[in-house]
Amino acid sequence: MDSEHTIKAFDAELKILRSRLGEISDLVQSQLSAAVAAIAKRDRGLAPRVISLQSQVDSLQRQLEEQVVITIARRQPMAVDLREVVSVLRISADLKRVGEIAQNVGKRVVEMSDRAAPLRQLTRSVRRIGLLSRDRLAAVLDSYARRDLAGALAVWRGDTDIDDLYAALVRELLTYMMEDQRQITSSLHLMFCAKNFERIGDHATNIAESVYYLIEGRSIGEERPKGQSAIPSAAPAGG
Amino acid sequence: MDSEHTIKAFDAELKILRSRLGEISDLVQSQLSAAVAAIAKRDRGLAPRVISLQSQVDSLQRQLEEQVVITIARRQPMAVDLREVVSVLRISADLKRVGEIAQNVGKRVVEMSDRAAPLRQLTRSVRRIGLLSRDRLAAVLDSYARRDLAGALAVWRGDTDIDDLYAALVRELLTYMMEDQRQITSSLHLMFCAKNFERIGDHATNIAESVYYLIEGRSIGEERPKGQSAIPSAAPAGG
Description:
The structure is a homodimer.
Chain A: H1 2-41, H2 47-75, H3 79-111, H4 120-145, H5 149-157, H6 160-179, H7 184-216
Helix pairs in contact in A: 1-2, 1-3, 1-4, 2-3, 3-7, 4-5, 4-6, 4-7, 5-7, 6-7
């Protein structure tokens, strides 16, 4: 009877932890969508919201982390239950970093000058990378919610499209910077935004590893495939 | 007697966890030093070692994470003991990312072309940022080893010097890229290396927060000071 009570109490706390993680997850995903929209439309009105959301994300993540520690201490979960709470901890840490990355994109949108507006084509490429990263994040969070190992593995394996788009964008930006010096500053901002979105893909991969660990009870061992290198070793115009 | 046995068993496991974390810490610090040396001397012979060390770091961190989970499950630590093992988990995750960053610098050294060697002055600036980040990491790991709250807080507060150096370097690199297009590719690699080193400073800050949490039993609340913005909103040459 006592052990049944303990199990119920743990399940109730786990439910709360999961729902808090769900809140953070929703918040970060809407923050990321807003960051992608802000850079795509160069919408400076949207950027401050992207930036200010982060203090909320940080505070929620800190609270969740404390609750996880209290739950481990109070309920002393074992085996799969322990993996459950450890996964909450890991995934929340990745989501926090995704929020920080979205925030950084927001800051760059604010800093980008109106005068040197980059080619629409380049902005579109950055947007595509942003949307792909957002989709990848959504897919892996969905695989977590549904305990879907195949879904998590699909995210874990398929990072090369973002890598390749990023590499193509960097080549375009390099050519562009060399053709028109006045575009260097805004091109650099775009490049860092694209790099930021690419890093979100890496966090999605981390989350996929946490889902694998949660379901399988062990870490993924094998090496992941990687896309092509981003910056060519010599400048395209024969540098 | 039974509880005394449990305490001794926990202490023994904690000692092992700490010593494993110490191993990772030493490995990552030497990896980072090698990365700084590789970019400073553009030493391609050094770079492969920086890159290949990461699989060792990853594997040690994965093992440590598993041991932490086993320790929590088996010993069910409470209060400060629980904070101890949670801190090991957090700090090891930050060290793993520092390793990944060093690895990325190594990859860029390999990719950088010999033909377009950037100004020695710029390489020196990147090296300075790298050394500052390495020192900051060493300082915070030392504060962890000695449970030195003041030392951790000093690291936590003092990130602005790296931010400022980075901002100055970006301005220099922008001017340089505009003066000589052939330098754009290698300048970008330098910029990303500097950005990478700056991010190591952020991980040192995270570790400082883990040390604070370990000693004080709660999270740091207040906002940290930040240095100036890195990329100017308009290009220096009147873009």
